[in-house]
Specification:
By secondary structure, chain A is mainly beta. Chain A is 0% helix and 51% strand. Chain B has no helices and eleven strands. The chains are: A mainly beta (121), B mainly beta (111). The interface between A and B is medium-sized, with 27 and 23 residues.
Chain lengths: 121, 111
Amino acid sequence: DSGVTQTPKHLITATGQRVTLRCSPRSGDLSVYWYQQSLDQGLQFLIQYYNGEERAKGNILERFSAQQFPDLHSELNLSSLELGDSALYFCASSVEAPGQIISGAVWYGYTFGSGTRLTVV
Amino acid sequence: GESVGLHLPTLSVQEGDNSIINCAYSNSASDYFIWYKQESGKGPQFIIDIRSNMDKRQGQRVTVLLNKTVKHLSLQIAATQPGDSAVYFCAENSNTGKLIFGQGTTLQVKP
């Protein structure tokens, strides 16, 4: 168990629908990142939140949105779903914005959750 | 734009042999690199990291080599085991606030 919790693990929905994916970061982590992984594809960065505020945006569609709540959990909302949105969606968390000193060394790494597999039919 | 790429999409090795997975990066400003392992149905797991002021770092059965001159990163796995079968990603950080991941290399270990 990485400490990052994602729910649900699997989701099957129809085109045109809207879904919400949830992520609880590792205890103490302030940053949450969302990544999309399609079949045979690498990890595509979608968006980052830090302590409740949007910090960075990647290749996130306008149909997608996210937020981070005061308790630091995050939700990724996907609307007007299309077949091509079928993918694994990963959440990752890190202790801080990049550059924080951990045990005397700078730590930039992320801890990933086990992902939500979304299937749009 | 920034990119991190892997040279080989699939690597097949015999159990017990050493494995070498390569990665090229394009951003010379990147100062931190990580290798992740992703097993089927799971999220990426941290394996080892290296900072740009180092050329080599060793972990348990794994070694990462960094060649800044040619912007090349490699992951060496000693005495490869069936449990090492997975997709391996390299990732770089260039102080932009996010890690940039390569496409991934599938490592297949033959018994």
